[in-house]
Amino acid sequence: MSIARFAAALVLALLLAGPAPARAADIGGPFTLTDHHGNAVTEASYPGKYLLVFFGYTYCPDVCPTELLVLGQTLDFLGEDAARIQTLFISVDPERDTPAALAEYMPNFHPALIGLTGTPEQVAKAAKAYRVFFRKSPKAAEGEAYLVDHTSLVYLMDPEGEFVSHFVFGQGGETVARTIAKVLARD
After folding, report:
1. Maximum separation of any 2 CA atoms in the chain, in Å
2. Residue burial 141-179, b: 16+ Cβ < 10 Å; e: rest
3. What's the domain range around 27?
4. Of 23, 52, 73, 157, which sits most exposed with the smallest number of CB within 10 A?
5. Which pLDDT belongs to residue 179?
6. Total domains in the fold of the chain
């Protein structure tokens, strides 16, 4: 085979291979936040547990409360396996979502859900680690309520902090639980 044919075959093979997929290792990472009981927590605060991580905020009018209900249903569908999961709700609105505000909000959902907040810098660092977009919407006037645009994915992380899967808004608790149960069965 001539060098020209070899080079052409190599270029064709590389083109057919396509781009490299996003690496799962690029999702997740260290964080230091405060839970809704006022305790400092990190990603290592839940040893041996799979983490379900969702970013949102308490003033969210639709997606966040719906997703938190779904996450509670997911834990119920998992039954005894729910003890192997810790679900974290990380606020992207630390200005309003103080530990006290989260302490009032979180009991509206499953008792195993933990709300987390922090300084704007801590929240931004956690969001960046999970590749989460968030942005405070412009206010119409000073003092008026505002919305926060944000990614609405739920991330499943393994006990070593590695990304396993994600779930999109609108998937029911039973569907999410079935996927998690398959992951747990392999472990």
Report:
1. 74
2. eeeeeeebebbbbbbbbbeeeebbeebeeeeebeebbee
3. 3-138+145-186
4. 23
5. 92
6. 1
**Residue 32: CATH number of its domain:** 3.40.30.10
Q: Which residue has the tokens 């969001």?
A: 127
What is the residue whose two structure tokens read 């309520």? 145
Chunked into runs of 10 residues, the chain (187 residues) has average pLDDT values of: 47 37 68 97 94 94 92 95 96 96 96 97 95 82 78 92 89 88 90
| Separation CA 72–CA 68 (nearest Å) | 6
Tell me whether residue 120 is exposed, middle or buried, using C-beta atoms within 10 angstroms of its C-beta: 0 to 12, 13 to 18, 19 or more. Answer: exposed
36 closest CA partner among 130, 113, 93: 113
pTM score: 0.83
User: Which residues are CB-contacts of 177 (< 8 A; sequence separation ≥ 6)?
Assistant: 73, 74, 75, 77, 78
Q: Which helix (H) or strand (E) holds 111?
A: none
CA 111/CA 32 separation, integer angstroms: 22
What string of DSSP letters covers 6-64? HHHHHHHHHHHH-SPPPPGGGS----EEEETTS-EEEGGGSTT-EEEEEEE-TT-SSHH
- In which region does residue 23 sit, left (phi positive, over 0), alpha (psi from -120 to 50) or beta (all else)? beta
Q: Tell me which residue has tokens 């405070």.
A: 136
